[in-house]
Write a structure and sequence with these properties.
Blueprint lengths: L4 H7 L3 H9 L14 H6 L6 H12 L10 H8 L2
Helix pairs in contact: 1-2
Length: 81
């Protein structure tokens, strides 16, 4: 399965990698791969750092929360977050 570094960093809740990929390498937070955005990968995982990343993405990068086949908000609600 293909995966971008941004999707992987979000899936692993790796805050430093997410910031580096966006700020230094210009990764698009709305890039859709396999019907999922990096935001979907982030909210589909559990980890204490994900809230720092989520806060960063929502305040600074304004991701499209309705992008992709699988919606991040729906995923979070299904998990009870």
């Amino acid at each position: 399965m293909l995966i971008t570094p941004m999707h992987s960093a979000c899936r692993q809740s790796h805050e430093e990698a997410v910031r580096l990929l966006i700020e230094e390498h210009g990764f698009d937070v709305n890039f859709i791969l396999n019907g999922k955005t990096p935001l979907f990968e982030l909210v589909s995982t559990q980890g204490i750092k994900e809230f720092n990343i989520l806060n960063y993405l929502l305040k600074r990068r304004r991701p499209n929360v309705n992008a992709g086949n699988r919606l991040p908000l729906n995923s979070a609600l299904v998990r009870g977050n």
